[in-house]
Each structure stands twice: as C-alpha cells, then as structure tokens.
Amino acid sequence: MEIKKVGVLGCGLMGAGIAQVAAQTGYPTVVLEVNRELLEAGLKRIDQFLAGGVAKGKVRPEDRQATLSRLTGTTDYKALGDCDIVIEAVVENLAAKTEAFSRLESTLKPAAIVASNTSSLSITEMAVSTKRPERFIGLHFFNPVPLMKLVEVSRTIQTGPGVEETVLGFAKSLGKVPIRTMDRTGFIVNRLLVPYILDAIRALEEGVGSITDIDQGMKLGCGHPMGPLTLLDLVGIDTTYYIANIMFDEFREPRFAPPPLMKRMVLAGFNGRKTGKGFYDYSSEPPRPNDFLAQR
Ligand code: CAA
Predict the structure, then answer these.
(1) What is the pLDDT of residue 1?
(2) What stretch(es) of the chain map to CATH 3.40.50.720?
(3) Architecture of domain 6-182 in CATH?
C-alpha cells in the first residue's frame, strides 16, 4: 500500500514533531488537536522549530515555507478521512487514546493504517478497541522527533500481512531508521532507558550527588549527549511518570516503579522544560538546577 497522505492525532511535543517530519519529507499532513488553542500552540511549536533550523542553517527558508504549506491543522476528525496512515500521539492514557480511535473510526477510510506513538501502552490493547486490529501497529518516535533518527515499529499477533512492511518503508521515507520490536510495554528503548532515568532520581533522593553532578557524571563518564535529569526535563516528568506506572503495572518489577519525588514534582507542576521548571529552572539561560530541590 502506498502512503500518500498522513494524519496525526495530537499536536503536543511528539505530535507536532511527527507532523513536522511528515510535512518536511513531502507528505500532505493533517494534524488534529482537541481545541483551537492547543492546535495554535502546536503549529507555533512547529514553525519555531523550523525557524530555529533556518537560523542554524539546517533548513532552507523555502523548505520551511513548503513544509508549512503541506501542513493543515484541524479540530475536526472528518479532515483525517482520506489519510492513508494516521499516527496517534495523544496523552499517554488508554482511555484518551481509545476515545480518539473511536472518533477516528467513524470517518477514516477502511484501507488506512492506524499507528500509535505510545511508548508504553500495549499495542494489542489499543488495536482491539478499534474495528481494524489487522491494520493497527506501533510506531514510536523519540524526542525531539525532528532530530532523533530512531523509530520503533511494533506489530502485534493480529497485524495483517504487508502492514509492517508498509510502515517500515514509510518510516524510512521520513528519514528515520526503524527497528522492529515485539508488542511489550516499553519496547526496546524504554525497557532499558526508564530504569536508568528512574535510578538517577533515586540517586538524587538519596543524596548520592547533586543534580549537576549526576548529569555531568553520565555526560562525561559515559559519553551521553545529555545527563539523565536533563533528559527527564526534555521528555517531561509527567510523561515519564505515566510511562513508569504503566511499565510497573505490566511487569511488577521495582525497577520500573516511579520514585516518590517524581509524583510530588508532577503534582507541583514541575514537569520539565515545557512548564519552565523540572530538575532545572528554565527562566534563565543557561538553566539553573531547580532551587527548591537544591535546598532539600
Ligand atoms: N532544526 C534543524 N536542525 C536542528 C535544529 C532545528 N531547529 N536544532 C538543532 N539542530 C541540529 C543542530 O544543528 C545539530 O546538527 P549537527 O549535529 O549537524 O551540528 C544537531 O541538530 C544537534 O543540535 P544541537 O547541537 O543544538 O544540540 P545538541 O548537540 O545538544 O543535541 C539533542 C540535542 C539531539 C537533543 C541531544 O542532546 C540528544 O541526543 N539528547 C538525547 C535525547 C534523547 O535521548 N531522546 C530520547 C528521549 S526518550 C524518548 O523520547 C522516548 C520516550 O518514550 C520517553
């Protein structure tokens, strides 16, 4: 099956990145948000990323314009009706996702593939909530989507012939490198990454090191591009908290259990870069370690 038109459900951090990459690689792309305000914020995020790319000499000004011209924002599911693939990137919550799929189902053409960008929920559980489990698959991108090369493609035991191949080819056409995984919560990357970043929070809680020293340790000691607490702020403390809970529910292993500080940060709205405060305070440049945590 040829993918000619792409739909994206959700224009948050991940959805905006996915929609940008699809439009940037030549696909007419429709991105849906639940209301105008969130849609405008998401489209602005895309434009700012492209503008940043132009400023860095990575994106040609004419490509920025061409990308934007291929991108349509909507709050109406009907606008997704003729897409060949729709990638779901709504909040990491099964009820929210199944609600989105049921609204999509009423308008989407039968031959279309539905892919979920979930990083931790079961693909099968979502697939069986739709009328097309054989045309349902996992397609997991990484943050920041326009810069990270990897996608995880997760078929289920119900995925029909040809769907995985189509999606692997589609991922390559987006300029990504796909890897294949089983439908197991966390797939490959989060299965390894989540215990590591949760351990960084536990190390902080136990006073093993400061925020900056924990981050420097992994950057300079292991060659990671950013330390685990900076990475948590990038991905979102809330998002990682949801992921950890889902993984803990599935495996019942303490290594996936979110540490108590994490819950308190989510309650306090210290969700990382997107809220201006997480392990670091982003109100100044360069960001400072969050004073509240430093005073503990
Ligand atoms: N448009 C186009 N290109 C851009 C750009 C933009 N707006 N902004 C930056 N770039 C380019 C830069 O020019 C640079 O290109 P070169 O390497 O060719 O010079 C490159 O992107 C890197 O940018 P920077 O130099 O500004 O920043 P950096 O070197 O600090 O890298 C980073 C930033 C890519 C995010 C890097 O820090 C990194 O890889 N961090 C780890 C991110 C990570 O682990 N993500 C996965 C999170 S887990 C997840 O997402 C899954 C989940 O389910 C939780």
Answers:
(1) 82
(2) 6-182
(3) 3-Layer(aba) Sandwich (3.40)
64: amino acid identity, one letter: R
CATH number of 190-291: 1.10.1040.10
**DSSP percent split of the chain into helix, strand, coil, nearest 5:** 50, 15, 35
Largest Cα–Cα separation, the chain: 57
| pLDDT number for residue 286 | 95
140 annotated active-site: yes
Q: Tell me how far apart the alpha carbons of residues 251 and 241 are, in angstroms, rounded to a whole number.
A: 15
Local confidence band at 294 (pLDDT 50, 70, 90 cut-offs): low
Distance, in Å, from the CA atom of 261 to the CA atom of 211, rounded to the nearest integer, reads 13
Q: Whose CA is nearest to atom 26 of ligand 1?
A: 56
- Residue position matching structure tokens 């049921």: 102
Ligand 1: residues with CB < 6 A are 49, 52-53, 56, 58-59, 119, 142-144, 147-148, 190, 193, 225-226, 231, 235
Quick: pLDDT tens for 40-58: 999 999 999 999 999 999 9
